[in-house]
Amino acid sequence: MASGRRDRLLTAAVALAVALAVADSSVVVLALPALYGTFDVSIVAVSWTITAYNLAIVVGAIAVLAVERRVRGHVLAGTGLGLFAVASLVCGLSQSFELLIIGRTLQGFGAALALVGAIPVLSGIRGSDAHAIRAWALAGTVGVAIGPALGGFLTELFSWRSIFLLQAPLAALALIAVVDPRVRSVEAAPRPEVRSRTALANAGFLALYGALVGALFLSVLLLVVVWGWSPIAGALVVTSLPIATIAVRWLVPDLAPRAAVAVGGVALAGGLIALGFLPAATAGWAACALAACGLGLGLIGSVLAPAAVPPDRPGMRAATISIAARHAGFVLALAVIAPVLSASLNDGARLATKATTAEVLDSSISLRTKVSLALDLRDLVANAPRGKVPDPTVPFDKRGAAHDANLRETRDAVVVAIRDTLTRAFRSSFLIAALFAVGAALAAAALRGRRTAPTDGKALAIAGVITALVVVLIAAEFHAGADGFGRRDYVDPCHAPADPFPQGHGIDGTLQRISLSAIDGAACKLGTGREDLILSLDPSSAFGSEVKWTRATLAEALRAGLVRAIDDADHRNTIPGFVAAGLKFVAERAPIDWMLGRVNIPFLES
After folding, report:
1. What is the pTM of this model?
2. Considering just the CA atoms, what is the radius of gyration of the chain in Å?
3. CA distance 560 to 530
4. pLDDT in tens, 118-171
5. Please, what are the domains in the chain?
6. What 3-state DSSP class applies to 296?
7. In Å, what is the CA distance from 214 to each residue of 210, 289, 402, 428, 447?
């Protein structure tokens, strides 16, 4: 009885080590936004906190293959857990990004040794290779399931450092169990293994884990950085993914492999596509898309797992290769997706700045506030620290938004414009992740396993419902406006209405009509948009290249603007036609260039 209880405790401790190593990426991913801001690094750089860990696992696992017959499992696991614990402290206490990456690399090497060494240790305790593989796989699944929630709660309640500082004692606890004399006494000596044909299954796992980068890495950055949610709120939404992964294995355990792959491919790729085409920045749409991803991961993984690590044979070598393949998927996907996302967000920031300028120009706020506010918002976006979406409420609150309904309305519209534009910038990255999902499904479909009994009607019906729900989800997103979400149609200044400020009244309304008509005329003449024209008034800004301001360019713009303002006033019947004709005659012949030569204008190029 005592021996049985002890074996259960040892099994739990070793399973903790496996869960800790597997869960790491899903835990740390919730800390990425905080790391992104703390160290003021780019998206490509911050992705190395995940890449370094997984790349080290790949290298470590490959290195183990060379010594697998000469080193016993408890030695590998013990060495790995000790290294993991020390490296966790290095990460938690690091004061520089470079030291953090060094710690993450050491953690990855430790994790590789612990994951590989856990298999023969579990085999000895459980008395069966098959039981050991099942316990090993279950521990990994549990780790992935609790990872997002754990990472979110720790980051928000304490800080990102608490994630690593908690990992250290947990690894030390598992280490105590691994060096227990009972483990050494029951562990079998290394023995030859049957070389299984697992290349196709491992290629599938590589692609599957590449798709997981999209579902975890991208979704967390979207929810926490762009939407501004707390880490806990983001974790709660992301947790719908592992919950669905576990639930689908319970709902359809007897689904035939081919059917599981077909449904899983639709669910995983469809979920990632749904994340890319969100029609609104709401929890409901995101949670449904992530749940679809989880269903796909569960179904495809259930087919790949027994093919990659056959449960009926000694599996240390097969498991080692599978570990390397899975984490190589993380590395490959991050290497592809992170630069694409970084470039997309840079473009998205420019589009967001243009969108906020359009909101300000179209708003009902006073004329004297509009241009200065548009330029303040431009500078706010340009100067925002890495890892932070700028808070556009600041320039509005500074101008009295608390007491001005028009300012508040414009402020809210600007917040939405920035959030929605940056959300759309994630689209291409999610679609790349969907391609990884398709690759995983194709590899799984090509596997030739043993024949199974036909799928029963209930399982087939559930599979059909899953497929239908994913298709309905994507269709519902497009019906709700996903295609146009985050995209703005701008007024063509050459075809703008004669009354560009119909909501204005009084002296301010008249001045706004004249000014906006003049901006439209100048922008049309210079071949640019009115938003780009306003933003280019500072040549040193990111928008300075839209218009090359020289004295001749300014004279041309002013003349075109005056003529357009007069024409629009004539069309609105604000002034009599003969007066408009006289004013246009003067505007077209006025010596504007000569007058500008007598004035020092700072933003003009020499």
Report:
1. 0.87
2. 30
3. 13
4. 877 777 776 666 777 777 777 777 777 677 878 888 888 888 899 999 989 988
5. 1-189 (1.20.1250.20), 198-345+424-489 (1.20.1250.20), 346-421 (no CATH), 493-596 (no CATH)
6. helix
7. 7, 12, 40, 11, 25
